Amino acid sequence: MSTLTYLDASPRPDPLGDAQAQLSAAVGILGYDDGLAGMLAAPRRQLTVSIPLRRDDGSVEVLTGHRVQHNLSRGPAKGGLRFSPDVTLDEVRALAMWMTWKCALLDVPYGGAKGGVRIDPDRYSHGELERVTRRYTTEISPFIGPERDIPAPDVGTDEQTMAWVMDTYSHQSGHTVLGVATGKPLALGGSLGRATATSRGVVHVALAALLDVGIEPAEAAAAVEGFGKVGRYTARFLAEAGVRVLGVSDAHGAVAAAGGLDISALELHVDAHGTVAGFPGGEAIARTDVLELEVDLLVPAAVEGTINAQNANRIHAMVIVEGANGPTSEQADDILRSRGVVVVPDILANAGGVIVSYFEWVQANQAYWWSADDVESRLKERMLQAWNGVQQKARSHGVSLRTAATVMAVERVANAHLLRGLYP
Ligand code: NAD
């Protein structure tokens, strides 16, 4: 597991400000009144909990966690659980809002949620992380469940974390509830293809976007920021598709090779050392320089706000596919648009994870398992269908892919509100 680290010299990310600005732009185009706009903007529920943790040395430390359910109009809330020392309630609110739009855009029957615990997982033992996860799950348990809110892995959490969430919730329910979390291990009702789903989706859309701007993937060069659950498989699948991956980074460092990195060798290095830093098959570069390499495609797959007003003018890539949530600040988005850079927005680009989470939930609720081919072909179909829809909307309305995607998603959520009516 890895921590979320912001670059000291960069502007502080403001994910909630970015998310609210995107919603305002969409609401302006859709012409909604203040009442409906307010319902779309406000989180439905937000819960902050204290998590007393007994450390391995016997001392007690009290951590803080959040769970935000942004919108429930189209189904149960859905969203990841993040363990990071930088987590704030506002960050979780932004991420929950993006989940609402992502689920609506991909037409999976969920609202949006997100959870976070303010903790650096690298500094806690396996046993301590288990106790944190179980206590956090207990605190939020009245609000979660297969029909209420379904967590999944995000930054700093993994399938083991989801196994603990599922087990803790099941103990409280008195029976095993496989559908309470997704991204679980295969042996506990996980889905084939879930671990790689976000990256597969990123690469399906990245290849389509490259072709759309006239670049053959076999001729393309790429850079990937972040080498965790999303970045690692993205680099692997890009290399498998013939794209030369010239540079990658993680929280500890970055490497680059002008002729392309050997991603299989790099993965072995990461397995052995826990970081891309020190990989002998490339040259060490500054972490921020990965974003500015001379490539056609850039995939940010780390944290929010790494593409900002400071570096947006120095980015060479003509296609940016947002593996991370909120990697591009509002100002950077404007700069990139004015430069003609194609930015495939997070709510489309990284939706593969929630699509296969949905498949996992369906399988777990029915106790009937699909083949890897079934999962992957359905994932590809949904991703490309969404890509085509967003691209057509952007072209026909003369707006960016982000605005088109947000408008489509917000309209679906608003229609659900209007059809359901306002209770009481
Ligand atoms: P992860 O914890 O597995 O990996 C995060 C990676 O980013 C690590 O390699 C870490 O070292 C690196 N990193 C952190 N700060 C960095 C920085 N400043 N510069 C370069 N690298 C840095 O997390 P993940 O699940 O891969 O999530 C990455 C992003 O993708 C997040 O924005 C997350 O919300 C988003 N996302 C994840 C999923 C999923 O299925 N896991 C789905 C959709 C979106």
How would you sum up this structure, described in words?
Belongs to the Glu/Leu/Phe/Val dehydrogenases family. Keywords: Oxidoreductase. With 424 residues, the protein is of the alpha/beta class. The chain has two domains: 43-188, 3-Layer(aba) Sandwich (Rossmann fold), CATH 3.40.50.10860; 197-349, Rossmann fold (3-Layer(aba) Sandwich), CATH 3.40.50. 43% of the residues lie in helices and 17% in strands. The strands form two sheets. Strands 9-8-7-6-10-11-12 form a seven-stranded mixed beta sheet, with helices on both faces. A five-stranded mixed beta sheet has the order 1-2-4-3-5. Helix 3 links the parallel strand 3 (77-84) and strand 4 (111-118). Helix 11 packs across helix 12 (372-397). The protein binds nicotinamide-adenine-dinucleotide (NAD). Nicotinamide-adenine-dinucleotide binds at residues 2, 4-5, 7, 153-156, 198, 225-231, 249-251, 287, 301-303, 306, 323-325, 350, 353.
Q: Which ligands does the model contain, each kind named once?
A: nicotinamide-adenine-dinucleotide
Largest sheet: 7 strands, mixed
Written as H for each helix and E for each strand, in order along the chain, the element string is HHEEEHEHEHHEHEEHEEEHEHHHH
- The overall pLDDT average reads 96
**Secondary-structure class:** alpha/beta
Measured between the Cα atoms of the first and last residue, the distance is 45 Å
Low-confidence runs:
1-8
Tell me the name of the CATH homologous superfamily of the largest domain: NAD(P)-binding Rossmann-like Domain
Total helical segments: 13
Shape: globular
* CATH fold assignment of the largest domain: Rossmann fold
Rounded radius of gyration (Å): 20 Å
Report the strand count: 12
CATH architectural arrangement of the largest domain: 3-Layer(aba) Sandwich
Going across the biggest sheet, name each strand in turn. Answer: 9-8-7-6-10-11-12
